[in-house]
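For homework, think about our next protein:
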Amino acid sequence: MKLKWFSIPAFLFLFLVMGSSPGFPDDLGSNLPDKKQESVSPRKATLVIGRVSANPKKHYVRLKGVVDYAVSRLANRGISKGRILFARDNRQMIRYLKEGKVDWVSESVFSALDFMRLADAEPVLLRWKKNVSEYRSVFFVRKDSGIHGFADLAGKKIAFNDAGSTTSFLLPAAVLRKMGVELVPLKTPRAPVPENKVGYFFTGGDESNVSVAVYTGRADAGAFSNQDWDYTIDTPGPVKKELKIIYKSAFIPRRLELFRKGLDDRLRQELAAVLLSAHENPEGQKALLAYDSTNRFEKLTPAIWKNLEQAKDLLRFIGPELGN
């Protein structure tokens, strides 16, 4: 179903990928599981996982285990090496997918839809992360604010967590724009909001900063995931007692695993099978835990495709944020 290397010395690789100021030359990657890179590595024997990241050092550690695990179980398909290829943004990852430099990538729903639309990437599996397969955005205000819906937000301020957050910016921004709300970025939380528009700012840090911003009055409204709302660290009891939800978005998939167009059919099938069964053995469980607290993978069901279609309808409202 469808919705419409170069080799570098080891010391230089460690400097670029593990250093505090990572760079992104077009073909920067890391060979796994061997620490030393060979002068020539046959592409067909190498499984390449891609990641859009501004912090390769952090994500290298998270990706290494699951790639090692997959490679160890794909020898019968001629796979003997794994590689991580980082991209600086979606545009670069789309190019990697189209050029066949990346075989497999995991992404949040809006970036995944972008890769599907612009690179013909195929969504194959749903990833359960932190015990959930789907989530939604919730919009909340103080109970004593007099705000009961989006119509009451005109001239007000809403707090989001981060410009790259799916549930604490991209999804709520798309929902608001679809409903005709004009969002205006604010340089500071104290900046004035133009009449009949809604100003927004980013709190950064932990999601608790969003709930606290609303609680203290720095923002009139806030938005983040239903998980953040239910998590007492992100929405402490005394804070939550003074807040109320005014809107809940539709659910969207938590995370999707996509394979590039043109990937060998047998390799595609066996890689999917390896990932689907990873949670059934200790080695796989360990690799999944390191892989952004993954619990397991699931085949895409009609219900998941329906949620993807709903997310696709919102994609056009956040094109600039995705670099389109």
